[in-house]
Specification:
The protein is 20% helix and 30% strand. The strands form 4 sheets. Strands 8, 9, 10, 11, 12, 13, 14, 15 and 16 form a 9-stranded mixed β-sheet that branches. Strands 4-3-6-7 form a 4-stranded antiparallel β-sheet, with no helix packed on it. Strands 1-17 form a two-stranded antiparallel ribbon.
């Protein structure tokens, strides 16, 4: 199967804008670099950093290395506990702080949020349109979590969740698919390992759903969001770019 990345609508841009957006330097630094002969377009030295080129069709080099232009980035992270799902925070580290500078220059943001004490799949991108598509309440994108729950989760809970449960503020959730994976004893009582798929994203929803049936979530990890699955080879705090196949799954790649 031949997978190609989807070309965006970007047309010709200034060389210094292209390089600046990719973190190669400020406009003045790039102007100086051009005069020093450090920038090439189609294998020819370019002394004018304001030259307009098509970054997808023309070969651009900086200091002898070819520049891989792209307008958007798509990162799959296994978010660790203790980190905020945000672009910046005065008191805590954010998921963006975990990224290398080569990705930070794109000014990415997390798609949706995971609570500070929740880990697992988090998509980070600078594609606002995709974020809207995945987060729109009308889309009902399914999200699957695995959790440790203090208390014995029962078949009655499965039935209740399948109909929707009433949260403490009176909101009735959409139907959710609850699976019981295991029951284990603990000093505090029975601990249940479960998998839960929901199609909405209310604040602390999974925790509140179990509180509504008299149980408490003690550990929570998101393992899928729509077609995206958490990569089992990614340790917590690590990330990678989406594969070509995953880009196709989220509508950002082309299959040929």
């Amino acid at each position: 199967m031949d997978i190609k990345f989807m070309k965006t609508s970007v047309k010709k841009q200034r060389v210094d804008k292209i390089l600046g957006n990719l973190g190669y330097g400020t406009r003045s630094e790039l102007k100086r670099a051009a005069k020093q002969g450090r920038i090439k377009v189609n294998d020819e030295v370019v002394k004018d950093s304001g030259l307009q080129i098509d970054p997808y069709q023309e070969k651009l080099e900086f200091d002898g290395e070819q520049v891989n232009y792209r307008e958007y980035i798509y990162l799959l992270m296994n978010k660790p506990q203790g980190v905020i799902s945000a672009t910046e925070d005065r008191h805590d580290s954010t998921v963006v702080d975990l990224l290398d500078i080569e990705y930070q220059v794109f000014e990415p943001f997390p798609v949706g949020r995971l609570d500070k004490d929740t880990e697992g799949l988090l998509l980070i991108t600078n594609d606002g349109r995709l974020a809207h598509e995945l987060l729109s309440p009308r889309k009902h994108v399914p999200k699957t979590y695995e959790a440790d729950v203090l208390g014995e989760v029962t078949e009655d809970d499965i039935v209740q969740f399948s109909k929707g449960v009433t949260l403490e503020d009176g909101y009735v959730t959409l139907p959710a698919e609850l699976q019981i994976l295991n029951h284990t004893p603990s000093p505090e009582g029975t601990m249940s390992q479960i998998r839960l798929t929901i199609s909405e994203g209310k604040f602390h929803q999974v925790k509140r759903m179990f509180e509504s049936v008299g149980k408490k979530v003690t550990f929570l990890k998101r393992v899928s969001m729509g077609a995206l699955q958490l990569d089992p080879t990614l340790s917590t705090g690590k990330y990678r770019e989406l594969t070509a196949e995953e880009l196709v799954q989220i509508g950002r790649g082309t299959e040929q």
